[in-house]
């Protein structure tokens, strides 16, 4: 159990520093290029953990499951993380961290609509509190935030929530680490294909001519320098690979509900790190918004802690916090 709490602390530090690390190399890499690098390396780091989980569960991957992983990778990484990376480049790291950390509100909504799961009173309270928290942070009537960055952060959260909901069945069968590893690796292959396609003359011209020059002629190896190599290693091996690995090890040592404390502390710790490292200003409305989102998290988590001794059945809901 003590090891489990240590894993929670390490995972919290990794995930809370994600936006800060990405912001520090913002503009040096293409968004798709960055995602390919970090999720390919992250997926490779997770392979030993995934193989161990498959052996423990006595499961074998079939063609249907591999196709599911490919679809999940496209939705959860290619789509969601591209929006996420663009959000980091266009808005403050603290804003993106808090907005993306609130995405379980969308998980709850989509779980009710798509999976027909019962939305209980505490879920409704969580949804209401987190939506109000988002509105307070964005402050639509008097906002000074980059609207494009805010919209991209919300789109990233929506797409990742859908990924979490659609991955639930696979998570229950294979375990979250297997689904995460598989979706990361398939997403890397998909992004590699997209990068290759972006260099095809007619495709590149069409994208450039329609305001999508960012996705034309996507670089693969440029941008890496001696000054950013340590940051990139931290992003790829630490945040993306290590963060997920320690999170799943925390689940094994404690429980899914206990390990989800990682994403209770992230909306608080990320803005603090943004202030200390990036010297970003945290306005009063963001503090109020974070408190409302935390209240929503408490409303969502309390019943899970009350059922700690029961077998966790909704690992994908916790995945929605990544």
UniProtKB/TrEMBL annotation:
<feature type="transmembrane region" description="Helical">
    <location>
        <begin position="259"/>
        <end position="278"/>
    </location>
</feature>
<feature type="transmembrane region" description="Helical">
    <location>
        <begin position="178"/>
        <end position="201"/>
    </location>
</feature>
<dbReference type="GO" id="GO:0005886">
    <property type="term" value="C:plasma membrane"/>
</dbReference>
<feature type="transmembrane region" description="Helical">
    <location>
        <begin position="66"/>
        <end position="87"/>
    </location>
</feature>
<feature type="domain" description="EamA">
    <location>
        <begin position="148"/>
        <end position="299"/>
    </location>
</feature>
<dbReference type="InterPro" id="IPR037185">
    <property type="entry name" value="EmrE-like"/>
</dbReference>
<feature type="transmembrane region" description="Helical">
    <location>
        <begin position="93"/>
        <end position="115"/>
    </location>
</feature>
<feature type="domain" description="EamA">
    <location>
        <begin position="3"/>
        <end position="138"/>
    </location>
</feature>
<dbReference type="Pfam" id="PF00892">
    <property type="entry name" value="EamA"/>
</dbReference>
<keyword id="KW-0472">Membrane</keyword>
<feature type="transmembrane region" description="Helical">
    <location>
        <begin position="221"/>
        <end position="247"/>
    </location>
</feature>
<feature type="transmembrane region" description="Helical">
    <location>
        <begin position="284"/>
        <end position="306"/>
    </location>
</feature>
<dbReference type="InterPro" id="IPR000620">
    <property type="entry name" value="EamA_dom"/>
</dbReference>
<dbReference type="InterPro" id="IPR050638">
    <property type="entry name" value="AA-Vitamin_Transporters"/>
</dbReference>
<keyword id="KW-0812">Transmembrane</keyword>
<feature type="transmembrane region" description="Helical">
    <location>
        <begin position="37"/>
        <end position="54"/>
    </location>
</feature>
<keyword id="KW-1133">Transmembrane helix</keyword>
<comment type="similarity">
    <text>Belongs to the EamA transporter family.</text>
</comment>
<protein>
    <recommendedName>
        <fullName>EamA domain-containing protein</fullName>
    </recommendedName>
</protein>
<keyword id="KW-1003">Cell membrane</keyword>
<feature type="transmembrane region" description="Helical">
    <location>
        <begin position="147"/>
        <end position="166"/>
    </location>
</feature>
<feature type="transmembrane region" description="Helical">
    <location>
        <begin position="122"/>
        <end position="141"/>
    </location>
</feature>
């Amino acid at each position: 159990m003590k090891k489990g709490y240590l894993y929670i602390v390490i995972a919290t530090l990794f995930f809370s520093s994600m936006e800060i690390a990405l912001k520090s190399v913002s503009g040096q890499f293409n968004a798709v290029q960055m995602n390919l690098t970090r999720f390919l390396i992250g997926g490779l780091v997770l392979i030993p953990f995934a193989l161990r989980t498959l052996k423990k569960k006595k499961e074998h991957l079939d063609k249907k499951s591999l196709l599911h992983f490919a679809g999940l990778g496209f939705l959860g990484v290619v789509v969601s993380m591209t929006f996420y990376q663009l959000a980091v480049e266009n808005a403050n790291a603290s804003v993106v961290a808090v907005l993306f950390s609130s995405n379980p509100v969308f998980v709850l909504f989509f779980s009710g609509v798509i999976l027909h799961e019962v939305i209980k009173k505490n879920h409704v309270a969580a949804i209401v509190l987190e939506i109000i928290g988002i509105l307070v942070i964005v402050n639509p009537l008097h906002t000074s935030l980059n609207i494009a960055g805010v919209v991209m952060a919300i789109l990233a959260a929506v797409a990742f929530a859908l990924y979490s909901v659609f991955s639930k069945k696979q998570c229950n069968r294979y375990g979250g680490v297997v689904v995460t590893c598989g979706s990361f690796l398939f997403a890397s292959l998909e992004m590699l294909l997209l990068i290759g396609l972006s260099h095809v003359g007619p495709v590149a011209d069409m994208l450039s001519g329609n305001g999508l020059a960012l996705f034309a002629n996507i670089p693969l190896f440029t941008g890496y320098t001696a000054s950013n190599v340590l940051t990139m290693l931290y992003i790829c091996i630490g945040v993306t690979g290590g963060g997920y690995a320690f999170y799943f090890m925390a689940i094994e040592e404690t429980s899914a509900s206990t390990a989800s404390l990682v994403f209770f502390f992230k909306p608080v710790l990320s803005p603090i790190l943004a202030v200390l490292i990036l010297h970003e200003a945290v306005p009063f409305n963001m503090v109020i918004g974070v408190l409302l989102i935390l209240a929503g998290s408490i409303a969502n988590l309390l019943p899970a802690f009350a059922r700690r001794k029961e077998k966790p059945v909704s690992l994908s809901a916790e995945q929605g916090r990544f």
